[in-house]
């Protein structure tokens, strides 16, 4: 998590490391899990001591966070120095004002927090500024800055554009001229083949310079003159998936030789329901997420093509394999969008946040349960492929009836497989069903049938497996201790609200967001795999005499989010991002920079 990759080149390396470590982990897997010594009950809290893998994961994560905190920059000179050391360039013009803005808002300035910006923007250095500007102006849904005014351009009223416009407007007086195209779809839009991105990243590296401070320019170019010029519109050639679905498009964003590109690993049998969970066991830390960045990456999780709606059948796909500037709120690791804080986090929308003021009451007053409500989204979950969809899988795996059926059926349900209980030290004798009955409150409030009918929440082919439940506003969910968070059509949109609440988020996703390098899994929230095979182990750990540990993570996550996920922090991130973006789109970008700290003015 902390070491978010700044280049695709890094991925190849990370990947080979994964293969080697994977093998080591695999052979040593579950060694200290001996079914014979498994405790008979978790409720007594016996059997748990420091040797639980979650304790080890928490220890490591706390050390990572401590290290991160030592890199906070207290003053501008240090921040500029850290910038040059990490980015290999002078900071962009406006950096001093940006730093002052951040400090005025009591922000922690930690250079790693901005890694995502550089990961996202680096390949664009390979394209000519003029071409980037032409591309940007060809996308009808965009926000422009001209003479310190933020202008909203859109072909028709679009979801969330107003919210993003509001975010940028708050910064308009501080920003140079620019055009930022925005993806208004739920689904992501750019998959540039890995080889191309790699070439672009290498080109940026080769051209990276730190010109003598005396030659550096601090004024961005004005775009008003250029607005008179008529440039030929750029066609990104957005396309629908070929046969084989979105996976065939998406996997091209993965490194050559990665499991996603290597059709042979693992064997995916489309003829049977998705029971491919071994891959996670191999990369996990004794069955739990050890490296969230790795575990959520579909490039190393080819089984996601049958375990996630994004790959099974998204509602809409319109994907370009060219690199052009396009901003959005979330993306898959193989996508190339430029991440912004999601509009739904900026909007003061109760549906996604539970309200700005509602964060839940005291831990001790909450129900000792995991709660989940929502619609069965994820894509078009038709018969028979609905069995691969993530929300459906979670709902069945927390359903005591379907789990009991699976226990009597060689661990197989219609759309899930149970973990080997012994691996998680779970008692086989009705322990899991009891845990689910007593400690979960979950249900779909709409089955999102195909064909879709908003007015009818039922669905003939799903009704036998899912009973509809009353919807629940987010602020009511905060009356429960545990908050599993699952992807929908893309990222869930609830996570910021969950983090700021007094309850404990248990997060599973394959999507990346702007905040990824500022949150530390196992310190600020509990990471869960998208197979959900670790869910029972996680719940048994906390319920088995570790209530105070759950409370500690819930409150640490809340306190941390109040420092790094505030609306101010979204502004600070966006401000920094747009200074960098404007520089890349500027004809004199090689010479643009902030060097007053060196010149001593
Ligand atoms: C608890 O720790 C002790 C060593 O301190 C070890 O012998 C024992 O097996 C552990 N118990 C469990 C259930 O892991
Ligand atoms: C890719 O598949 C080949 C078999 O076709 C296998 O030998 C190789 O190890 C695989 N590579 C990776 C990185 O898994
Ligand atoms: C986690 O995985 C990512 C990439 O998959 C890698 O870059 C990173 O170094 C890993 N982190 C640790 C602590 O191993
Ligand atoms: C989804 O279902 C259709 C039949 O309706 C089938 O042809 C297709 O292969 C399935 N897709 C996947 C990814 O399993
Ligand atoms: C029992 O397992 C089989 C596969 O082994 C699966 O197709 C079936 O749906 C399962 N039955 C139930 C009731 O979950
Ligand atoms: C739980 O599973 C059973 C069997 O599949 C199903 O009849 C029931 O409706 C499910 N309950 C919920 C809340 O989805």
Automatic annotation (TrEMBL):
Keywords: Membrane, Transmembrane, Transmembrane helix
Lineage, highest ranks first: Eukaryota, Fungi, Dikarya, Ascomycota, Pezizomycotina
PANTHER family reported in the protein's UniProt record: CAPSULE ASSOCIATED PROTEIN, KDEL LYS-ASP-GLU-LEU CONTAINING - RELATED
Source organism of this protein record: Penicillium salamii
Transmembrane spans: 12-33
Keyword ATP-binding: no
One Pfam entry name: Glyco_transf_90
Domain Glycosyl transferase CAP10: 288-588
Record flagged with keyword Phosphoprotein: no
Protein name from the UniProt record: Glycosyl transferase CAP10 domain-containing protein
């Amino acid at each position: 998590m902390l070491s978010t990759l700044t280049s695709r080149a890094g991925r190849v390396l990370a990947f080979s490391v994964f293969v080697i470590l994977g093998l080591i982990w695999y052979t040593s897997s579950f060694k200290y899990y001996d079914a014979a010594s498994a405790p008979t009950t978790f409720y007594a809290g016996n059997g748990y001591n420091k040797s639980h893998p979650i304790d080890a994961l928490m220890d490591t994560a706390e050390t990572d966070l401590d290290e991160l905190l030592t890199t906070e920059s207290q003053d501008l000179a240090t921040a500029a120095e850290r910038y040059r050391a990490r980015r290999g360039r002078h900071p962009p013009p406006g950096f001093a004002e940006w730093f002052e803005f951040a400090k005025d808002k009591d922000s922690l300035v930690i250079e790693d927090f901005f890694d995502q910006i550089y990961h996202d923007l680096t390949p664009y250095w390979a394209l000519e500024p003029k071409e980037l500007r032409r591309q940007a102006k060809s996308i009808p849904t965009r926000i422009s800055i001209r003479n310190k005014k933020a202008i909203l351009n859109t072909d028709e009223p679009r979801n969330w554009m107003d919210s993003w416009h509001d975010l940028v407007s708050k910064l308009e007086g501080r920003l140079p001229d620019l055009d930022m195209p925005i993806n208004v779809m739920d689904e992501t839009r750019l998959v540039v083949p890995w080889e191309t991105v790699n070439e672009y990243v290498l080109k940026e590296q080769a051209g990276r310079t730190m010109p003598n401070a005396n030659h550096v320019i601090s004024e961005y170019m004005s775009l008003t003159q250029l607005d008179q010029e008529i440039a030929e519109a750029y066609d990104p050639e957005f396309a629908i998936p070929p046969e084989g679905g979105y996976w065939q498009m998406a996997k091209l964003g993965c490194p050559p030789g990665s499991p996603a590109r290597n059709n042979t690993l693992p064997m995916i049998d489309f003829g049977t329901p998705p029971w491919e969970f071994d891959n996670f066991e191999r990369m996990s830390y004794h069955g739990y997420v050890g490296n969230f960045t790795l575990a959520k990456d579909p490039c190393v999780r080819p089984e996601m093509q049958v375990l996630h709606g994004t790959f099974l059948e998204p509602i809409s796909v319109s994907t370009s394999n060219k690199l052009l500037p396009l901003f959005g709120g979330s993306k898959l690791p193989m996508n190339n969008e430029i991440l912004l804080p999601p509009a739904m986090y900026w909007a003061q929308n109760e549906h996604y946040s539970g309200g700005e003021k509602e964060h839940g009451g005291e831990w001790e007053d909450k129900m000792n349960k995991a709660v989940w409500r929502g619609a069965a989204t994820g894509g078009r979950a038709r018969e028979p492929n609905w069995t691969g969809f993530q929300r459906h899988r979670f709902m069945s795996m927390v359903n005591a009836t379907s789990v009991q059926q699976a226990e009597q059926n060689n661990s197989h349900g219609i759309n899930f497989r149970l973990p080997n209980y012994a691996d998680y030290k779970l008692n086989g004798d009705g322990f899991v069903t009891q845990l689910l009955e007593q400690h979960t409150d979950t249900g779909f409030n709409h089955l999102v049938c195909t064909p879709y009918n908003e007015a009818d929440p039922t669905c003939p082919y799903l009704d036998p497996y899912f009973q509809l439940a009353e919807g629940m506003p987010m602020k009511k969910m905060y009356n429960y201790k545990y908050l599993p968070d699952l992807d929908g059509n893309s990222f869930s949109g609830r996570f910021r609200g969950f983090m700021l609440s007094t309850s404990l988020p248990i997060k599973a996703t394959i999507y990346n967001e702007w905040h990824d390098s500022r949150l530390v899994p196992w310190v600020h929230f509990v990471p869960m795999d998208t197979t959900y095979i670790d869910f029972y182990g996680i719940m048994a750990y906390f319920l088995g005499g570790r209530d105070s540990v759950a409370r500690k993570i819930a409150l640490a996550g809340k306190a941390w989010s109040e420092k790094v996920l505030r609306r101010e922090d979204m502004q600070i991130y966006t401000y920094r991002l747009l200074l960098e973006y404007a520089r890349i789109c500027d004809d004199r970008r090689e010479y643009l920079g902030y060097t007053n700290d060196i010149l001593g003015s």
